[in-house]
Amino acid sequence: MSELERLAARARDDGRLGIDTEFMPEGRYRPLLCLVQVCVGEEVVVLDPLQDQLGDPRPLSAVLADPAIEVVLHAGRQDVAILRRAWSTTFANVFDTQVAAGFAGFSAQAGYTGLLHDVLKIRLAKSASFTRWDVRPLTPEQLHYAREDVEHLLPLADELQRRLSERERLEWAREECLAIAEATDERAPEDAWRRLPRITGLDSRGRALARELAAWRERVAAAEDRPVGSVVRDPTLVELAKRAPRNTHELGQIRGAGPDVIRRRARDILAAVQRGRAAPPIRLDDLDRLATDSIDGPTIALAEALVRARAQQAGLAYELIAARADLAPIVVAARRSRPEPDVRTLRGWRRELVGAELLELLAGKRRLGVVNGQVDVG
User: Which helix or strand (DSSP H or E) is residue 71 part of?
Assistant: First the structure.
């Protein structure tokens, strides 16, 4: 029986395991998986995917995909995404201790070392976090650091689950962890343009060009395994979409399109521009048109006050419930009498906690005031 088969069998017997990864994102299109740390019971094993002895990961990846086995992580979104890709697996039953901490009265961004100290009174040195995990051999300090990342993970989860059960918040936390289980670092090239800065400043024709240019850049970066910004930087790409150069001379007039870019990329850039010219214009859909106006600022602040008050009363981190990106579309939709936007604050447990009340406030059916120094809704 291989090491991974043995670990998988133990995890199935226990019904859970803890897992963490070390990776290197620098200089690559996607992060390189360098270590996988697994804890089952009190046993901690450090697996090295960059060494041949790891072998076939399928026994352990099958465990990660088994809904009967709880997979415990801390701030595990990127760990899940990397393992999903590197091990060709899925995740079905994730419990993220950072997410859980937000429901237990701690910060929604609570770090692992701070949380261990606050919950279990355990102190970790954490001295090797920014070392080169892709260089072999690893130092004793690195291996010690890697082991500590999972050594106390299961006891931490146990204590958080106990506290959440007492407060009847455990199922809310589990619901929130479903999004962690779906994390991926796969990106559709055709959607890359939406992540560009200042994209709303382009007209419908410019957005069509930006889509083609960003999709071309994404594919080049993936093929060459390099960051997208090293192919063409974001501001340069947006300017390319705005100016739509027709030849190398016009291309050379754009800041960021220096001699090296022209020498290596000119033909492909101009071809992408040509495809963008021929593509249908991209007009803003209804959600894009839900942009805020200056008159929305006070109402958004009012909405935030209500959400913060309810979060404080429930003992939850505010960030778990809403951000400005959630509240602004709700406010604008209410002002324009549009249908409810599909944002997290209006779904599931958040709607139960404050979302429905927020809609009534924006519809003028409730009033927000201050009584004895506390926000009161009447």
Answer: strand 70-73
Let me know how many helices (H) and strands (E) the chain has, helices first.
17, 7
At 269, list the tokens: 């850039």
**What is the amino acid identity at position 313?**
Q
pLDDT per residue, tens digit, the chain (378 aa), is: 788 999 999 999 999 999 999 999 999 999 999 999 999 999 999 999 998 677 889 999 999 999 999 999 999 999 999 999 999 999 999 999 999 999 999 999 999 999 999 999 999 987 777 889 999 999 999 999 999 999 999 999 999 999 999 999 999 999 999 999 999 999 999 999 999 998 878 999 999 999 999 999 999 999 999 999 999 999 999 999 999 999 999 999 999 999 999 999 999 999 999 999 999 999 876 445 556 778 899 999 999 999 999 999 998 999 999 998 899 999 999 998 999 999 999 999 999 999 999 999 999 999 988 887 777 787
Place of tokens 């981190």: 317
**Are 40 and 17 a contacting pair, CB within 8 Å?**
yes
Q: Which residue is associated with the tokens 């993220």?
A: 96
- Interhelix angle 204-224/234-243, rounded to 10 degrees, is 140
The number of beta carbons lying within 10 Å of the beta carbon of residue 306 is 20
**Cβ–Cβ under 8 Å, residues 65 and 71:** no
User: Phi and psi for 371 in degrees, rounded to 5?
Assistant: -125, 120
Burial class (CB in 10 A: 0-12, 13-18, 19+), 266: middle
Q: Which residues pair with 23 in a beta bridge?
A: 33
- Return the closest-CA partner of residue 134 out of 218, 41, 31: 31
Instruction: Please count the CA atoms within 13 angstroms of the CA of 136 that sit on its side-chain side.
Output: 7
d(CA 347, CA 349): 7
| Cβ atoms of 113 and 126 closer than 8 Å | yes
Structure tokens belonging to residue 364 = 């003028």
Question: CB under 8 Å to 117, separation ≥6 — which residues?
Answer: 123
The residue assigned the tokens 């890697």 is 146
Domains of the chain: 3-181 (3.30.420.10), 189-278 (1.10.150.80), 286-377 (1.10.150.80)
Residue tagged 């465990």 (tokens): 63
Residue type at position 227: P
